[in-house]
Amino acid sequence: MAAMLPADGHVHTEWSWDCEPGDMEASCVRAMVVGLPAIAFTEHLDFTVWTGVEPAPDAPAKVTDLITKDGTLAPPPLDVDAYLACVQRCREKFPDLLILTGVEVGEPHWHRDQVAAVLGAGQFDRVLGSLHTLPLGAGLNEPGEHFARRPAAEVVRDYLAEIPRLVAGSTDFEALAHIDFVSRYWPATAGPFDPADFEEEFRHALTTVAAAGRVLEVNTNRRPFPEIVRWWREAGGKVITFGSDAHYPGGVGGGFAQAVAMVEALGFRPGRHPYDRWYA
Predict the structure, then answer these.
(1) Rounded CA gap, 250 and 53, in Å?
(2) Domains in the chain, please, with CATH?
(3) What is the reported pTM?
């Protein structure tokens, strides 16, 4: 018998500033179609201002419209009240699906006061911490811009070195999202990305996450690396969660069957309830 799929703990909808097309109701429908027991809408909560931004050709209009002539991008605030009202409407419309509220906080260690002000109301079931940007020149930008200007291995090492500082600098998040985020931007000219080339750096970052009692997300936006999950367990990591990082309804639960098989093979098991995290 195939294992029951876990909850999708990382989904974006129209309430995330970079999400187009996003549709919370359609995402709920998708979750039920693929057989998920629960879904967490973890909308972006970003305070980092990006500089030197070059819009991608396929970037949605709602993103390109935010970029100024000098290449600055300041993410707009999350409309918390409207977002929560939308969640409530979905809960009423889909009573058989457990719908959790949440946010994905970018660089929480750099914006502690602003993050605390939003989270102070205590209205979020799940809080993810993420590292999306690194210092570049006098500003901040995503790894893609770094790879265009710097040696690839150096960018990855800088990214992983920032993870312990993120963990030490913020107690507001419970789960670290996509520790392999930097690999999404790895340049094709450098050959396939191999986490084994950065094993020492990954292990150090994972050890700090585990020692702080945080949860590691297995992110299926790209096929997850089994080495990282194995290193997580060897570092003392006891808990994982799954997240599709979907930015459109069709991505909800994407790659979960394969991720579940991989995680089970590495010794993690589901909790008592279908919507629980998984444990070693």
Answers:
(1) 28
(2) 8-279 (3.20.20.140)
(3) 0.96
